[in-house]
Prior knowledge:
The complex is a heterotrimer of chains A (499), B (319) and C (325).
Chain A: E1 9-18, E2 21-31, E3 36-40, H1 47-54, E4 62-67, E5 70-72, H2 77-83, E6 85-88, H3 100-104, H4 119-132, H5 148-161, E7 166-170, H6 178-193, E8 197-201, H7 205-211, E9 214-219, E10 222-228, H8 234-241, E11 261-270, E12 277-282, E13 286-291, H9 297-305, E14 310-317, E15 320-321, H10 326-332, E16 334-337, H11 341-345, H12 352-357, H13 361-364, H14 372-386, H15 402-415, E17 420-424, H16 432-447, E18 451-455, H17 459-465, E19 468-473, E20 476-481, H18 488-495
Parallel strand pairs in A: 3-8, 3-9, 6-7, 7-8, 13-18, 13-19, 16-17, 17-18
Antiparallel strand pairs in A: 1-2, 1-4, 4-5, 9-10, 11-12, 11-14, 14-15, 19-20
Helix pairs in contact in A: 4-5, 14-15
Chain B: H1 2-18, H2 20-36, H3 43-68, H4 76-94, H5 97-122, H6 126-145, H7 155-162, E1 164-165, E2 168-169, H8 170-188, H9 190-200, H10 210-238, H11 249-259, H12 271-290, H13 295-318
Antiparallel strand pairs in B: 1-2
Chain C: H1 17-39, H2 46-71, H3 79-97, H4 100-123, H5 129-148, E1 153-154, H6 158-165, E2 167-168, E3 171-172, H7 173-190, H8 193-203, H9 205-210, H10 215-241, E4 243-244, H11 252-262, H12 274-293, H13 301-322
Antiparallel strand pairs in C: 1-4, 2-3
Amino acid sequence: xxxxxxxxxxxxxxxxxxxxxxxxxxxxxxxxxxxxxxxxxxxxxxxxxxxxxxxxxxxxxxxxxxxxxxxxxxxxxxxxxxxxxxxxxxxxxxxxxxxxxxxxxxxxxxxxxxxxxxxxxxxxxxxxxxxxxxxxxxxxxxxxxxxxxxxxxxxxxxxxxxxxxxxxxxxxxxxxxxxxxxxxxxxxxxxxxxxxxxxxxxxxxxxxxxxxxxxxxxxxxxxxxxxxxxxxxxxxxxxxxxxxxxxxxxxxxxxxxxxxxxxxxxxxxxxxxxxxxxxxxxxxxxxxxxxxxxxxxxxxxxxxxxxxxxxxxxxxxxxxxxxxxxxxxxxxxxxxxxxxxxxxxxxxxxxxxxxxxxxxxxxxxxxxxxxxxxxxxxxxxxxxxxxxxxxxxxxxxxxxxxxxxxxxxxxxxxxxxxxxxxxxxxxxxxxxxxxxxxxxxxxxxxxxxxxxxxxxxxxxxxxxxxxxxxxxxxxxxxxxxxxxxxxxxxxxxxxxxxx
Amino acid sequence: xxxxxxxxxxxxxxxxxxxxxxxxxxxxxxxxxxxxxxxxxxxxxxxxxxxxxxxxxxxxxxxxxxxxxxxxxxxxxxxxxxxxxxxxxxxxxxxxxxxxxxxxxxxxxxxxxxxxxxxxxxxxxxxxxxxxxxxxxxxxxxxxxxxxxxxxxxxxxxxxxxxxxxxxxxxxxxxxxxxxxxxxxxxxxxxxxxxxxxxxxxxxxxxxxxxxxxxxxxxxxxxxxxxxxxxxxxxxxxxxxxxxxxxxxxxxxxxxxxxxxxxxxxxxxxxxxxxxxxxxxxxxxxxxxxxxxxxxxxxxxxxxxxxxxxxxxxxxxxx
Amino acid sequence: xxxxxxxxxxxxxxxxxxxxxxxxxxxxxxxxxxxxxxxxxxxxxxxxxxxxxxxxxxxxxxxxxxxxxxxxxxxxxxxxxxxxxxxxxxxxxxxxxxxxxxxxxxxxxxxxxxxxxxxxxxxxxxxxxxxxxxxxxxxxxxxxxxxxxxxxxxxxxxxxxxxxxxxxxxxxxxxxxxxxxxxxxxxxxxxxxxxxxxxxxxxxxxxxxxxxxxxxxxxxxxxxxxxxxxxxxxxxxxxxxxxxxxxxxxxxxxxxxxxxxxxxxxxxxxxxxxxxxxxxxxxxxxxxxxxxxxxxxxxxxxxxxxxxxxxxxxxxxxxxxxxxx
Lengths: 499, 319, 325
């Protein structure tokens, strides 16, 4: 690889705006043939957005894309494919009950003179592509029966069969075992020799340094730096990824000393994959649960709340053992504000009032007789208390803004008399002003003696808001940070492979 | 050439594996009935079972594709009945078999396209759409038969059920031909791949766009064509048309497909299983018939078998 | 869409979307009635109108349970066959023992058991509702035919027949039953916490479960209720027809679904009311009755019902798209 050659692909000054958010701000990236280019940054830094612009899923608002030095337009996926760009997503787009060969050529199956699929040619070409990856799989096998690692290989083969010159790999080793990771690295090495350029998004330091030629760091949608892997150190990279101006209006005031232990999780493993997780939350505390996407944080929340069954360990609330049932969890005083509020937190077609009352019905109406008058009064009370911006309690919750919808979800648990709130990404998809509001609400909760367990991907949030934090890594607990050690750098270090 | 044969054979082996449940069921049923049902194993009876199964096969084959796309067509039985009436009436009135067949095919295809349009273009749930079409077709069948002669079709038409060619009954030829065509469509064309993708992972087709919707339409339209062909056989067999001739046959077809290993979600299954499933359902009805069990018990038995098959599928899916 | 916007020049009182939907359907009913009374003079007679009320009440009894199931996000295709089996069992019980009470208990009990079986298939066995109840439909069909063995049971005590064909204060008895069910059902759906949970489960099952609603228990309950209502409706049908045979109630399922859909209950769950279903039943009955009055062959009825079902589903889906869900 010669550094002076014309880059295979170049992104120049890419800017992308979404309503209320500047996702990419003048970001540039160059790729050379046969290079493995690492793309790093925390959750929300803009890595995925940049790749989506590259593969035609989004169109940039400003900036240029150049292929082999010539400016090109990438407006659809087809344009990107014509350029030879292919993305290997984390959710594979394979059809489970078709063969490997068929999946590789889906939509482009070779036809014979009769217009039917030329099975022999398809399987032969499939074998040839797999051979490029040094793979010897039976192309007749249904994709359904393959392991995750092999499915990933099929995805890569699919990309190669479309003459991909640039491969984007988004956290490819997230679901792989060590041996499978090795195998993938061998394949990457082989592709490198064949002149394929690769953009590799990763949080694993050991991968960055063992595989990468160059590293580009993004932060808050901005381009920070590009370094040669050989010239950088892990600490340097962490520093570049983290660290921002702090000018938020919310300030953590004095908090009461932590009270009784409300939540005790001991050695919990669950069907969703988490292993041997233990943590404690006391009344009056905001405890953070940090970690990379996919590290198992939501799974911990679901296991605690009873949404997923435990396979080992136990959960106790105020000393009482919790059964694996959200109904029981609610009864005892837990509440879950899920990650995806539209799909899991709210019934969009129902009114604000209906949603507010749902978890608290038993508490408000012990006789099971629902009185609309009382219900609406309670609804109005909570709307005022949480300052929810809505024309009235009978508005369909669908028409509220993201921030106000989130308040409705919080309000739901307030009505239920919750004492411990589990927040899963409470400020996702909410604009800056509303975020501060949410933090104030959370603060208010603990001042009243409640407890909060907060999952957040934004390290800055965790540091500003939480008293202490646990960090998850690959579905197990990586460690705990007390108030004094709670910094973004420490959180990130615990969350990543630090090699 | 050898490579093609190898590929095809290997694919076939894979599919047979998936349909093994139906194979075992068929063997089991045959064993049970050879003991319990007098005359089950006689040559004449077995030929009869095969013969009766041809009409069901014509319905079950396209139903397999429809179910593979996570859909369902409840209207097939009613449309089939309507088509027998149309075929008989047109044939008797005009004297022309070709005209009658053309009319029946036109009606069947129209219903197929209508179903497909509503499901593909408007994203309506297939079971409710086809439930509505069922009612519509049933009503039309009753109306069409009112005050008209529907019995006594031409000899030439009856040949399609009673006649033979090269020693085998014509219905078997028709069924085999239909099976061959649909087999090629499903396993050897891009259309077939899209059928699997529509059920298994629509995301995989994300760059296909409009083609995806059209494929769904054609799947239901194909059902229409097959129902038209089935009406030919059924009219020939009954020597005329009848508005309630095939009511409930779609249930047998769905049962055959389900028993044959095709699931209602995720695009799993295939034609081999359906063929075995059709034979299994046919054997079950025939055996119970020979044991003098009324049709009602037969239907209930088929229902129970379907529920069990679904339960096993659901349990295995979650395992 | 701002529901509070007042059009200039029009002084309409503010109505909720549900109230507007009901008004719209009442208007449709009114227009239909008007058109029919002009086209067919025999329509507007007292006798015919009472007949329409009776028919609609019967349809409503059956469709009320179905409404609950659909509200909760499910579907029950087996209700027609449920009515048949329950009626036949009740008929033979009454004939055999002479006791009306026992017959009614048998009929209602049969319906309830079927409902519970449906509910168990959906919640415990995780079989998709449309195929579970569809399979159940055929099983019931078969059992009913086998049980009746081609025979008909007829001739029931006049006290029993009152239930279906009698009058009380010049109003058909089924109307009182309909009112009773409407009242009880409306209280259940609008004025109990249970009802609120049903709506929530239908609107978003996952969110309801994560809010602590015991989703499986609720779904089992609505299927059981649907079965029970089918059982009760079967008694009224039996009383009205004064005979029971294997193939009764074939068209009932489609008509019940049509009534529920016309009434504005969405097939996708979470919205709808029993009042809506009642109006839907009235509209459908008026249409079918009108066809009779106009001399249109009864054979067109399944066709019209099927078309109505398709149009309702289409309208439902398009409305949902418009509101961006």
